[in-house]
Amino acid sequence: MKKTKKALASLAIAGMTLTTIPFNAFANGTVPTRLAGLTAEDTAVQIADQTGYTDKAILASSTSYGMVDALTAGPLAASLKAPILLTGAGNTLNAATKAELTKLAVKTVYVTSGTAVIKQGVIDELKGMGIEVIALGGYDRAETSVNIAKQMTGVTKVAIANGIPDALSIASVAAANNEPILLTNKDALPASVANYLASAGITSSDIIGGTGIISDAVKAALPNATRHAGMTAYDTNNQVIQDFASSLEFDNVYVANGATGIDALAGAPLAAQTKSAVVLTDGKTVPAAAAFTYSKSSASTVVTALGGTAVVPENVRQGVAEGNVTSVPGELAIVSVSALDDSNRFLEIDFSKAVNTLQPSDIVVENADTLERYGVKSVQMSPNGLTATVELYAASDSDIVLQYLQDYNITVNANGTILKTTFNRSLSQKVRVQDINVGDNEIVAYADKTGDKLTLKVPTGMNFDYEGALGELVQVWYNADNELTNYSIVSTTAKSDAIEITKVNQIKLLSEDKKYDVSEEDYNNTSNQKFAFYLDGEKVNIADQLNKKFNFAKVGFDSAGDIEYVSAYSLKDVLIVNSVDGDEVVGVEGSGSFDASDATIVKDGKVVALDDLQKGDLLFYSDDADNKDGYAEVLNNKAATGEIDQVYENSIEVGGQTYNYDYDADAAADFDYSKEAVYINEDGEVADVDSDAAEQLQAAGEVSLYTDYAGNLIYISGDTALVDSNSKVAVLTKDILGYEAARDKVEIDALTQDDEEVSYDMELGDLDTITVDGTDYDINNDSGASSDWKASLIGTVGAYTGIRLTDNSDSTPTVGEGTQVDVSFSSEADAGSLVKLHLDDNGNLKELEFFSDANGLVGVGTIGSSNTIKAGDKYIDGKKLTANTVIFDATEDSANTNAEDYVVSAFGDYQGSEIDNGTYIYNDDAEVVAIWYDSTTSDDKSYDEALVTKVLRNTDGKIVSVTVYAGGELKTLAVDKVTADDIVKGQVVVLQFNEDNMNLVKGFARAGAGNDIDSNYSSRVFTGSVAQNGVDVGNKKVTVGSTTYKLADGGLVLNATDPSDISVKSLSDLRGKSNVTVVLDAKTGLYAKFFIYDTSTATTPTTPTTSVVTYEDTANKVVYVDNAPYVLGASTILKTAKGSIIAIGDAAIFTALDTSDEVSNIEVTNGVVTSLVATKIASVQTAAVTSLISSLDAAAMDPTDPTFNTGGEVAAARAAYDALTPAQKDFVTNYAKLTAAEAALS
């Protein structure tokens, strides 16, 4: 049997396209040497254009008194990818800023000041532009800095500043390192800042400025504080740049005026993009920091002034570019010492300020351990006095003078000042890098000659090109701790491609269609082969990979052109990047997500951060690669652009080239992709390309085709357009009639979704296919056929009852065993049944599709009084209603409605009464394709799921208002004085409304006997655990227990650990949560309105003396005690007060417990009950035993009594007691009387 996935066509298909505007769409490439405008606002606009940021912006005041509010906005700007724009003191938005907001399509603006600084008129103007305004202004500058910091995520370290220049000095560094800047007073840490540090869990801090700016008392109140300071604000700027040099790059350097400050503020996010330093000047002189930045610069370094020549004169900018520090009083220091040759005979010493002259006698070089001195032969000074080249005495030119990995003390007498530093020369080797571990900042390399393995640590601040070095010969320098100090990629011969292992000594690069030999060279003086093969991050034997193909590989070559190294990955999962949520890369809906918390991601030949991903990137990934850390590569390989010339059954033709969208068997076997070629459909979701989709793409115009290295078509980007589909949803207006002429024939009368009446009189054998519930049965009625299916009529002449499909390959076909399928003329093929007609280009019916299964992936459902449909509903029975769902209105005469009396419409246009009788058909995406109905009702009740955050009651104790999460937002609703004492914060309820007033709550469906209105609560609320791998963020799916739910449109994930502070979270936050409540968007189905979790750890709730079991929700394993829910688990223990076990596990406990039983001492761990004590339990029957013991009177225990029965009554009571379980014995209240009776007889 051939089974083919079928998509049911929508009524209409709207055009759409994936927005692929990169984040730097407006950036101009190389930054110019000056960014300036006529005003500060104009300059900010110039800077904003360079950032390339869109969508969001930060608005600050350009006034001198208002700028202080925005001092700390630089890190937030970098975090949000938002430029900082300015406006003045007036009541209207600056014109240049307004134009820039429009140009950058800004939707959200963060305002750093209150309306006393940035006027209300400006705020109103922003809102009038359709921009969301988020106010960050606080009571004072410190609180404002805290408000700004709270907008950032993943923060563990902060910078603390007081003065304006100090905050500007750290701005670009802090922005690049996701480090908020908080403002303090000199002698006391503001309460708002202290509270933030405690609540945010900050673990370390950087103090910017000396004790004259921020006292040691403040330092003592900060976590793990490090001070960065100089004598003046400009010295502090110099010190900050030097202290953070390892995390800076010097391809770009920015210069701003430290006195005016406003341009430096706007420039911080731009500088952060390239991890660049901002040098502050007083507007007259070149500061000492220029000497250091110059020493780190290259010939290609661009020095850019922020602001016009009035604030940064050109001679100052040029001086910073050349390192020509203005001779001003200040501290002279050694900036750096480096060796110029392999023997360490020539040293270069850089100074922070110009040195007049130096003699050999002014310089002392000594071994730091032995204090042995080395003679200085000569000293040469650079023209600007900032660099000294020192030659040491050596026995010969080749002798090593200073040893590698040894510390040496360098002392210089410069301008009468004694300067000291330490020098250490790193070791160096030529190696081939074979493995990279970005998460641990580590590389594994092998010496090119000896094959010695070398594992090197990469310092946190080093700009190391991991992917560029992989597979290449690299010269590395490292210290005694095997820490990399420098590197240079010697060869750049490696290639990225898809590969095939054709022989154990031969590999084919698929895009080149060329085979290369594997190197047979050994390391010097060994039999160890240089060639190495890695698969998914693990070293393997190439012989085990023979005849296999891998879609991603980095291939390194030796000098002879043979392959010496391969790092291959099998990346079978692909997503189209839509966004980044924390550490999760989220694909366009339908393409999945990738947990990148520990993963390596490569793009354009570089290891990149998540921030470097762009919307629309094609991300190929594997969660299991690199020892389950995960690995991904972005490949935006645009193979062709143009209109689709032809659409074929499994392929398309663009520009004369044919591309398969339905992979053939070879491609599927070679690369095992989890999907075939995809596109983004009219609903904005990723879907497989089929011929219908290809025709829609063709009709819309130009497309772009993206392939992998092997040429497999992965993604078609383009608009979709309405095409005249050959597939029509229809309703049968008469029962299908079967009759026999020469062959079995049928008459079909129907009305299509286009309101077109059609009629067919045809032989069953003329149909190519009959489809039933999504399964295709290809028809072959030829005599003797041994494949496909025979279509014939069921019954006798004049009384045919249906169509029978029989498997031609089975000699004994049987209904119900998959070899014989029946279609009934009185059921799925009768008048009023929904079908689908598939026509050829000439309008001939070639395929007939029926729907009969109510439980399959494709099938038919029934509409009734318990599952009605109202205008605006989103689901029925968990199946999604769309605007394009076709509606056939048969209220005229039910199934007997004539074709001309039907009303055909789309559900998106439906405004009629509630539909309470009919049928619907749905596709394998759980979407309702069409509805047929013949009855409506006037029921006026409506319900909405909610999580309560606040309850207000009047003096009579009746609820008059609730604040809830509902409909995707937090809202406050009026309540019609409902009495419900058990409604509290953090409780899940279902709100009841009258349809004519959705703003007044009429009742609350909730847990508990008598509280669940029409089963609206018990049918929607479920509880369970989520595994670490139970969340698919990209497809919005979460598996709770064994059931997979999908987050509905407008659905929320909520953290309700603290009912007083419920917060909105991400789907990824659900991973590993053990107490998750699922609130469905309807009484049936798998779409969730809420996922609510509680991360609280072990607690023992205080229970009243008498705690009564009020309700048992066995389906969700929840028992309600005094109306409070408790989740039971498989290991929950129910015991007596004396510790005897009554039952273990939720199922056994529900059997033992009943409503009105009493329990206490409920112990909960991670949201699940571990144990509880039953103090009164009906299922433990001990009354008979208690009665026997109670009847033991004095006569029964006295041998002299005439009625004495030799102690028989006592023995009987003992036997009955001993037959009890330990738990039952604990409930016998008069056991002491039994033991007393036995004692009297002894």
Automatic annotation (TrEMBL):
Transmembrane segments: none annotated. Pfam families: CW_binding_2 (PF04122). Keywords: Signal. Residues 1-27 form the signal peptide. Gene3D superfamilies: 3.40.50.12090. It comes from the Bacteria. InterPro entries: Bact_Sporulation_Assoc, Cell_wall-bd_2. This is Cell wall-binding protein. It comes from Desulfosporosinus orientis (strain ATCC 19365 / DSM 765 / NCIMB 8382 / VKM B-1628 / Singapore I) (Desulfotomaculum orientis).
